[in-house]
Sequence to fold (377 residues):
Amino acid sequence: MLDTFRDHLDVLWGFLTALGIVLILTPAVGRVARVLGVVDQPGERRRMHLRAVPRLGGLGIFLGIFVPALAFLDLDGPYRGILLGAAVAMTVGMVDDFRGLTWWGKLGGQATAAVIPISFDVTIDRFSFPLLGVHELPGPVAVVLTFVWIIAMMNMVNLLDGMDGLAAGICGLAGLTFAVLALSLREPAAALLSAIVAGACLGFLRHNFYPARIFMGDSGSLLLGFTLAAVAVEGALKTAATVALFFPLLVLAIPILDTSFVVAKRLKYGRPLHEPTPWHLYHRFRDIGFSQSRAALYFYAWGAVLAGAALATRFVPFREGAEWHLWPTVLASVIAFVAVATSVYMVIVLEILKLRRLRAWVEQRRTVDEERELKSA
Fold:
């Protein structure tokens, strides 16, 4: 009981320390970025800001994660590899923020970062799924799967970071959810690092919510994507929980869905996968007339519902002792229905309202053309 209390206290202190560091340091980082000329300029269609904004916020997030991690984490095991890999991920992103990297140079840096925790035995060595039980994975399969997962999450968060407050808010929700799940799975180190990520994201959100005064840049998005991917492996996927596979898929569903949608569109139209395009979900919100703050709040609500579903799979005892229990199963089904209904609603908002807006525009053009024809007659 005493050890559990200490674990919870460490998690709280880690969260508050990260929050305070990022809150205090981010304005100074922004000023340094302006002096160095690391600034995002408006003008491109895929960009949503209207004025120059410094983009080196990842440095503040990095310090907010590393200082409490070094203070509270035991670095004799896999978490040394995770922090080393996170430092490499942040460095690759910072080089891209300063100088710009080719897509293959950036991918090579991401691969280097992903290999480091794998060398410290941070691997998806099993998967557990309802009704299927726990299945061990062969060593080479575990290594390849972990490698792909980490690189994929780095790029997913990087692609999500296109609207004020979006990536920081979603990653903060993910960090909080992973912290609760890891504590329940008796993985205090994973819970601590997850809470630190959540605190850093929340502190950064104070400066990044619309209208953003600073962007996290690739240094921040690659750092957050890497850290969440690695902590999901070490804190959830290594456990024998019967729904462990659901945890990261639900908690990180928004960046996964957003990236899947964009990749599908690029394949459909024959565009290179690394080419920036205005096809993300947040671009679609803009196209139907949502403000950035309203769109971000919609995403936060969606992420909270999905996080609630992930927590329900852990805390609602719908199947214990290899037996199904009626009322917990009903409750879990209701929560699952709400999560699915929310996702369907988001699709309706993005698609149906888009069609209505398009039809209104077509009707307006038709009226203008008819008026011109009458005047010419």
Observations:
- The mean pLDDT is 84.
